[in-house]
Amino acid sequence: MITKTWKRKQFYKFHRWVAVAIGAFIIWQAFSGSIWVLPFPSPVRYLHPRPQELPINEVQITPKEAVRIAEHSIGSELKFTRISLRNFKRMTIYELQTKKGKVLRVDAAEGKFIPMNKELATKLVAEHFPTPLPRISDFRQIKDHDLSYPAGPLPAYRFEFEHKHGFESHVAIKSGAVSHNDHYTRIRNIIVGLHDLSILRLLFKDNIFYRFLLILLAGISSIAALSGFYLATMRKRKRA
Questions:
Q1: Backbone torsions φ then ψ of 142, nearest 5 degrees
Q2: Distance between the two ends of the chain, CA-based, in angstroms?
Q3: Spatial contact of 80 and 101, defined as CB atoms under 8 Å apart
Q4: Nearest to 82, CA basis, from 98, 106, 59
Q5: φ, ψ of residue 16 in degrees (nearest 5)
Q6: What is the 3-state secondary structure (H, E, C) of 26-79?
Q7: Per-residue pLDDT at 237
């Protein structure tokens, strides 16, 4: 015979196991959150562009001419939001940024358009290294985010280097933005991805499934809270 006492005991067991699951998740959130904010011993922090002297005397074309060369190479009229001059691996170049964020480059000495390809991407990466660039073990273009490149502009070029720290570099094809990672940052990316559950989006490539899991987690948390409130109310009534 099913009694009220039996029902209450079963309901308590249900609440307990739901609370255990939510408690484990909260503990993981606290641990992974602390890892997120703590500094990692990653050599990647030493990789950044080094300022170089700008040889103005090598500039042979004006910004207006650089715009004309870039538009002729692309085959359409463009609107630029920024034009800058920089010394780049023994080359003085103009960088022209469009309204959509794309960066075009023109040799300021020879007036040649510089396309984004492996050669240019390699120079962009090498500019960040204080020492000669390590040997490249793999080079390819990627069109999707993964654990090594969880966020950033796409498509991008990926460089993998023969290095004890497992250096990888990514160059955004559109803007030329460079980012780096190694063994340490990839481990951190996994922990952070498990903290905010963004790793699920990388694994399943489906925003609908990702949102469903978030709603499910919120529902389980609500059930744990409401069932605990119900048990507390029942115990208070029993004492009264």
A1: -120, 145
A2: 26
A3: no
A4: 98
A5: -60, -45
A6: HHHHHHHHHHHHCCCCCHHHHCCCCCCCCCHHHCCCCHHHHHHHHHHHHCCCCC
A7: 67
pLDDT per 10-residue tile (average), the chain, 240 residues: 68 79 85 81 81 82 94 90 86 91 93 94 90 92 90 94 93 94 89 83 74 81 80 68
Taking CA atoms, 135 is separated from 84, 161, 168, in Å, by 31, 6, 11
- Domain boundaries, given as residue ranges, for the chain: 4-40+191-239, 49-114
> In the Cβ-directed half-sphere of 166, how many Cα atoms lie within 13 Å?
9
Burial of 165 by CB count in 10 Å (0-12 exposed, 13-18 middle, 19+ buried)? middle
209: three-class secondary structure by DSSP: helix
Cβ-contact 24, 233 below 8 angstroms: no
What is the separation of C-alpha 163 from the centre of its chain, rounded to a whole number of angstroms?
Answer: 22
Predicted model pTM? 0.78
> Could you name the CATH architecture of 49-114?
Roll (3.10)
Contact 197, 213 (CB under 8 A): yes
What pLDDT is recorded for position 206?
Answer: 66
